[in-house]
Amino acid sequence: MTKSISTAQLKNFKNLLEKRNDHRVLERTVTQNGILASSRDYRAEVNTTPVFSIDLDTGKVANQKQSGRCWMFAALNTLRHDLRNRLNLPDDFELSQNFTFFWDKLEKANYFYENILKTAGFPTSDRKVAWLLSMPQQDGGQWDMIMGLIEKYGVVPKSAMPETHNSSASREFNSLLNLKLRKDAVLLRELVQNKATEAQIETEKEKMLAEVYRMAAYSFGEPPATFDFEYRDKDNNYHLDRNLTPKEFFDKYLGWETKDYISVINGPTDDKPFNHMYTVDMLGNVVGGREVRHLNVDMDTFKKLAIKQLELGESVWFGCDVGKSSDRKQGIMDTELYHRDQLFDVDLAMSKAERLDYGESLMTHAMVLTGVDLVDGQPKKWKVENSWGDKVGTKGFFVMTDDWMDEYCYQIVINKNFLPDELKEVLKEEPKVLAPWDPMGSLA
């Protein structure tokens, strides 16, 4: 039986409010200053001073500008950190995010087409079909997705394929591409339903992909097939390596064993027991390429692995819910930064698992751990390299308290050689397939 709010209830609510001695003061405070400013605790700034016992020198921060490429920036940042140190490169050296962005758009279009064909026998009201059509593609991604692109296409320095208007401000391109993909989905589904041959479907799909390639080339520029790697190092020595392909550049100058770096998550929900492998249905970009795979572990293990990698001089790609209890301008992520519960005298406490299960939190942003402050062997705060330029935080670097990591960090990327033997064995198991809308499938 449904019940509406009664007049008597409204009168009672008003009386309860007026009985509070502080309600006029708080009303004036919140209406004039807003909720966050009124609930902010200045002590958070004291607890997040940007000083760390382990602090990697990683150069200047990058800037993704008005695009959702944080996962891509964070991954390329981890690659350039090593390259910068080995080649004595300038602090502002970057790998081209536009290069990988171009190929990601083309591959995501193909991935979408393939999923549309697989589900063409279901109505558009089917949950999976509706999920596909709700966002055919977007800027976001996962670690395994950027590694899939690099394994197929390689990388180039930013000088070989610099930013364009559309890579730095991607909304217009995304809107246009999603329109095209939905339009193409109509035709592909009709072809399947009208019993078109596989060859006919493939011919139409190839035409569609050629159009996507053209759209991406006009918007981002066409990726170089070869380029010259030319630079001066920090000591002003001149270097030139001519006529490299992107894959040759990766193999020669980076040389990472990409398959050694694996996604480790902390998803403490009942449907994901720890120490098991997981993947997500319909999540990816390169068809036939690298599968998204997650090793789920408890938070203590999660942090120990991150610390071990930092101690050995390697930065750590990580994914989190950056908007929760954080200050973008000052670069603070602290669970004690705002006390909205105390301001309004309401209980807002939820466990990490409850926030995931009930849609209150999920991974929204990827960054890089470049330091940690250890006190008696225990982490107290973490240094974070963001990709929002140097006008925020401390020249673009943020400070994250350890409690904030516990509550809002969901993913790190670790060299599998740092795993204990029992977890190395877990990597061999067949992953459980999660639904496309599972929070562990969210794109940073």
TrEMBL record:
It is found in: Cytoplasm. Coiled coil: none annotated. GO terms for molecular function: aminopeptidase activity. Keywords: Aminopeptidase, Hydrolase, Protease, Thiol protease. InterPro entries: Papain-like_cys_pep_sf, Pept_cys_AS, Pept_his_AS, Peptidase_C1B. The keyword Protease applies. It comes from the Bacteria. The keyword Protease applies. PROSITE patterns: THIOL_PROTEASE_CYS (PS00139), THIOL_PROTEASE_HIS (PS00639). Belongs to the peptidase C1 family. This is Aminopeptidase. It comes from Ligilactobacillus animalis.
